[in-house]
Amino acid sequence: MHAYRKGVSPIRFKREGGTGQSAGGDAFFRGAMPQPRVEAGLSQTEFGERCGFYQTYLSRIENGQANPTLNAMDVIASALGMTIYELWEYVRLTSKD
Question: CATH second-level architecture of 34-94?
């Protein structure tokens, strides 16, 4: 069983030399992802219910152990009341790298 939303096929893109699977070490959302969820006053469990994702999947995204698909990013952005473009900009501006 996948950690993704039921009935939604994930979109995966292969990186040069990669398999398209989550790599963990280069996770885009690492460190920045919990902030908007916490600012919205949501626990991972509550946010997972809002998104239709398992809490464990959201935890892996927030800890940099999973890279969400574009579909997942869109769902996460919508649950935060943002567009996917606003979410990317938020993460870019708040990332620690």
Answer: Orthogonal Bundle (1.10)
